[in-house]
């Protein structure tokens, strides 16, 4: 292969040289462009929220071919879950790239998360100008899916955002959808349906084997491999072995002939039938079914497969002749007799036929009742008619019509009782619909909706081979600005197919997709309507579901949604003023609804509160009391991750009276720190030891490798919250003395070399009023407690730089400035502080600013502060983070700084954050022997969620579900997680989610404690 490629490269170079000699002007032209970039292809990392998504649109082999034959650059976004490793890609000639910023053509499988979508243009490989990118994916927009309209709108010109700027819209990216790639006859040419069929058949056999096990029978299919466990040839081989066993020993007599019914005529059915062909299969017809089960001599060393086309079970209601054409013209004239003719005989149904409203369902829930009644009836009849006693002990109808592998996975669709999809982690479940009478059994359902992802290697290989010609056509479009009409033969067909598969281009919907404008407008109108006070629903709660409302969909909300939406008996409404983010979090889930709200319009919020059982507020802190008022008014319980503010505390009595729980401080800090501190103190006291010192430090930081930025800090939660925290004063007790740090001295009170980690160099800073915790933790001086200290963790240098920012007025919360440019933020803030103009941005101005700032900023920090401001306000070309737009209305300097920092100090997709929590408790026993107990947590962010989001979001979700499930034992009024049954519940759920505190106990050694470190500063 390598030789072949090298020869080809040499040949191409030879051709180029030859060409250059023959065509000097073309050679000059090529020379002129020798510094132009080559066409670049980017292979996207799939959405980290889709944990099973391991497929990739191009294999390393295909990449190698493209590089050799099309002379392109290929970049890939690192992803450790992907079926191909980074080494394989690098060996093929591709280069890792965090954002894929250089890519002209960006390829992915599923839809790109909105915040990762690149919409900016790239440099034209043929000129010095810019060209739009092309994004190719299964966008799930082409049926107007509401949850993906925000994605589609990113490709479209929006006059309210872009004005009349036609040049801008011409440079918006092009969206090509794999699903729309068809041949000249309109047949889809690439897709994964066949693999869904294969994987679905395997999961269906597995699921049925579990059902049989519950019915007391072990079938040979118990050893069916899970589809993700091996490449396809090996899976087939395993099934063949099961088949050989069946051919030799038969299927268990106690379940009678094993009958598989496959519905559908497309790739799904083909895949399923192909896999089943590894078994000793006998194809049967509908007419054969009654005799197959009734005849005791039916051989059991075969698997009976019925491929049921629609014509076998669809009947005209008037008894007239059935035809496909007539059916599609008059679907309501037809009914399905599947429940009577086929379902009662099937051991497992593999459903590969889709359903659309208006057409008869394959089987309604009521018809399923009839089918199961028929199974019971046949069972009785067969038992009565069986004479020989041996056969009389078995029930050949056992388990029939109970196992469904619904590959089409239309929720409450063709199989009406199928009420939810299952996951590859838990592929099947048992479900007894509410309408079922008591004597009928529950159904075993396999309804995984992402089946092809479980065969990532085979599916990616075939997909890659299928899409390669289309990718080449896209490359040539960039290379030569060549459109379909200029290609010939099959090249023309391929290029034209790409044009047909284009959903949007140049800021407009194209081809057959123009109708989608209406769906996009509806979605936008809903967003706009929010300001007029209405809401937008994406999904709707089902009867019987409990309802949680989450207000705020910001940085820590992702894990809350994941955790709550895992509970199918709960419906979550996600409400904030960020419609795109709400839609993103709903992510097609059937039990989540996105609603746009503006807290300035409380009547909309009130309606939502009224309709909920529990409300979560992840809004900025100042909004919590207003939400709590609504909760009291409508007798709803509230959960927040924020400190109990004085305004919140005032609501205690009214909340008790209204029988309402307002549960706060259930994030990380406050939250996990509380729960774990209470559990630790409790266990020490149970050992009859007294607590003499309690110190607790917590902080969210970038992982060390991603911390090389000013402040050595990046934002994983509300930036405004981080800055406001720097304005608090602090109180604490140390070695028997009370200390008070005024707010203007907080950042001067850093604790260098904080001994809370063996590896990390950290500094600490006191966190608010630690003495507030004396009651909660029962840590009073009267009980012998000498130290009570809570602190925040940062990397060294944070406090000095933040202090400098504060000193020049950047944390000002009172005055307003109308920002001229980001470069003038600091001079403008300082001017407001000094009450006189400071400087402008030219060089002389810079010197004047330095001089003015030097009055307030310690000399040793000044150069570092100037460097930080320059870095923050001047992103280089290679920066992955950009400046935010300059606001046109006046804002407080602190809010402007928060916007600037949150844009410039944000995490790139591949970067990780880190949460560190460390408690140190010194205990003393009856003989005054002291011990050091530590309890600590270190969590790194992963590709799915930041560590901060997990550490805040998970306890919030667990608390909300706790309130939903155990409200009778929960307290009422304003609380933190102080009740033992609550904090132990939260800690055990956190353990289960991998957030486990580590404990240690050591004998006391003078000078080796956090307390001792604090004493070196305050004594
Ligand atoms: N206990 C802890 O350890 C901890 C840690 C981090 C965050 N928190 C708290 O959790 C909450 C959420 O934090 P985050 O980082 O996700 O915050 P964020 O700033 O990222 O998100 C705030 C959300 O509120 C929405 N919002 C703001 N103003 C609105 C308005 N007027 N109308 C409607 N929606 C509005 C925003 O659109 C966003 O969805 C905050 O209250 C924060 O203080 C606690």
TrEMBL record:
Pfam families: Sacchrp_dh_C, Sacchrp_dh_NADP. This is Alanine dehydrogenase/pyridine nucleotide transhydrogenase N-terminal domain-containing protein. One of its GO terms (molecular function) is saccharopine dehydrogenase activity. It comes from Schizopora paradoxa. Keywords: Amino-acid biosynthesis, Lysine biosynthesis, NADP, Oxidoreductase. Signal peptide: none annotated. GO terms for biological process: lysine biosynthetic process via aminoadipic acid. It comes from the Eukaryota. One of its GO terms (cellular component) is cytoplasm. Residues 42-199 form the Alanine dehydrogenase/pyridine nucleotide transhydrogenase N-terminal domain.
